[in-house]
Amino acid sequence: MIIDTVENARLYCGTHPLLDAALEMLDECSSEPLSEGRTDISGDDVYVIASNARGKTPQEAKLEAHRRYIDVHLLLDGNETIGWKPAGECTLAATTYDQVKDFMLYGDRPSVWLPMKPGSFAVFFPADAHAPMVSEGAVRKLVFKIAIAPATGG
User: Fold this and answer.
1) What is the distance between the alpha carbons of residues 8 and 36, in angstroms, rounded to a whole number?
2) CA-CA distance, 107 to 62, in Å (whole number)?
3) How far is the C-alpha of 58 from the C-alpha of 109, rounded, in Å?
4) 46, 76, 93, 144: which could join 140 in a potential S-S bond, CB 3.0 to 4.6 Å?
5) What is the pLDDT of residue 154?
6) What's the start-to-end Cα distance of the chain, in Å?
7) CB atoms within 10 A of CB 36
8) Is the dihedral of CA 103, 38, 3, 150 positive or negative?
């Protein structure tokens, strides 16, 4: 897991080949946000989802984990707290793994709460279970989805 500010995003380039494209776009996207919904950057290998939604309470938030994608959460407006726990320490499956949506929920509680401010970002790898969108107000954010392994043939 990585948490930092947009100004430092380029420090993490080279961590993963497809992650670089998202990191290089953070500054651009924070000043010129995208329309809500999905925008493809490189097909299913790298895309971004823009959202503007009401936050959840810590009790409502569920830890989620992915197997095929790295998540990069960029907070644009509002205040958000994201819960975190190593996925390997999660023992209370709330759902089975959905292979199509690359998504699984856990009933475990986060071991750490990460406060986010506009202009900050967090990178969650498959080993990182995370509970996003904890806020007393509305949260406007981007979530970049980066494939662990690029699609073949394209």
Assistant:
1) 25
2) 6
3) 9
4) 76
5) 46
6) 29
7) 12
8) positive
**Gap between the Cα atoms of 25 and 18, Å rounded:** 12
- Ramachandran assignment for 121, one of left (phi > 0), alpha (psi -120 to 50 degrees), beta (any other): beta
Q: Which domains does the chain have, with CATH numbers?
A: 2-147 (2.60.120.370)
Amino acid at 96: T
Q: Are strands 138-147 and 37-42 parallel, antiparallel or unpaired?
A: unpaired
pLDDT of residue 152: 55
Residue with tokens 């699984």: 104
Q: What is the pLDDT along the chain (154 residues), one digit of tens a residue?
A: 999 999 999 999 998 888 888 888 887 777 776 789 999 999 999 999 999 999 999 999 999 999 999 999 999 999 999 999 999 999 999 999 999 999 999 999 999 999 999 999 999 999 999 999 999 999 999 999 999 987 754 4
DSSP class per residue in 114-153 = EEE-TTEEEEE-TTEEEEEEE-SSEEEEEEEEEESSPPTT
Kindly give, in sequence order, each residue whose CB lies less than 8 Å from that of residue 96, ignoring residues fewer than 6 positions away. Answer: 104
The pTM of the full predicted model, rounded to 2 decimals, is 0.93
